[in-house]
Amino acid sequence: MTDDEMEKSYRSGLPGALGVIDTVISKIEAVILAMGVLLMALNTVTNVVARFAFGNSIMFSGELNRILIIMITFAGIGYAARHGRHIRMSAIYDALPVGGRKVLMIFIALFTSLVMFFLLYYSVVYIVDLHSKGRVLPSLGLPVWIIYLWVPMGFLITGIQYLLTAVKNVTSHDVYLSTGVVDGYKDTETEV
């Protein structure tokens, strides 16, 4: 199943209001990521055409791409957490029995959620500091702090996602890497 198919068919495995929140966040992430990638591609292609056809670059193109990279990166961390695509170093984890893996996964999800909320706090402090300095982007004229609003939003969504993963593991029999991804490895080897 491709990423697009997963996102279109995504249904939270969480009960009630938590499932609704999880699904709504999933849809918002999908729109942000799709729009960000498309806008970045359009901006880059337009800038290249302008540079070679007219001899001048679009002066705000670099700033716009910087904003879009920040947006895609911090919307993408929540997406990666939702689909169990985060980096795992699992040698000890894999050696544990199912009960031990479940306990460890709950701890990992809760700890990661706390780290995301900690980073959320410090990203807000950073944005407040940027706001107080009054810096603006030279070409677009936007205050610099505005482009970094994606950072705390990304940490918030990722923190919520890991918290929901912990809830899913507490309320479920199986071990889940995210609210919709059961722990396990796919056998991708083929015989030659």
Automatic annotation (TrEMBL):
Location of the protein in the cell: Cell inner membrane
Superkingdom assignment: Bacteria
Segments forming domain Tripartite ATP-independent periplasmic transporters DctQ component: 40-170
Membrane topology, record value: Multi-pass membrane protein
Residues spanning the membrane: 30-52, 64-82, 103-124, 144-164
InterPro entries listed in its UniProt record: DctQ, TRAP_DctQ
PANTHER family: 2,3-DIKETO-L-GULONATE TRAP TRANSPORTER SMALL PERMEASE PROTEIN YIAM (PTHR35011)
Role description: Part of the tripartite ATP-independent periplasmic (TRAP) transport system.
Family that this chain belongs to: Belongs to the TRAP transporter small permease family.
Protein name: TRAP transporter small permease protein
Lineage: Bacteria, Pseudomonadati, Pseudomonadota, Gammaproteobacteria, Oceanospirillales
